[in-house]
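Revision sheet: structure tokens.
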Amino acid sequence: MSGPDVGHTIHASAIVLDGKGLLILGPSGSGKSSLALEMMARGATLVADDRCFIQVQDDKLFVSPPATIAGQIEARGIGILNADFAPFASIDVIVDLGRTSPKRLPEQLTMTLAGVTLPLVHKVDNPSFPALLLQVLRGGRRD
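Predicted:
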């Protein structure tokens, strides 16, 4: 068993659903907050928006919000919204909004972040994308 690493802050958003965490990566303006809001509307809970403090403990990646923005999420065109939030979550899946998956049945991808390798999903141009991600969290992906 290893102790926690020092940790650091990254530009990302994160949600949690039934104890399963999703880290949302992508360039500025790619829709990280919008995706988090859509998933929250479908039952997920916000962990952090815009900046996530990540830390590894026992070979698992954990995320928490910086205290200054905890319980806040940006809604472009409206402003900063208050939201219920989880103070931390383990991350089970990463989504990268900076890359799009054109394949109908893409191969399983992974990403290593802070030394932890996790399943990776690229953005899918489909209005059901938030629902697809929630199902990935609920049931996983068949390889």
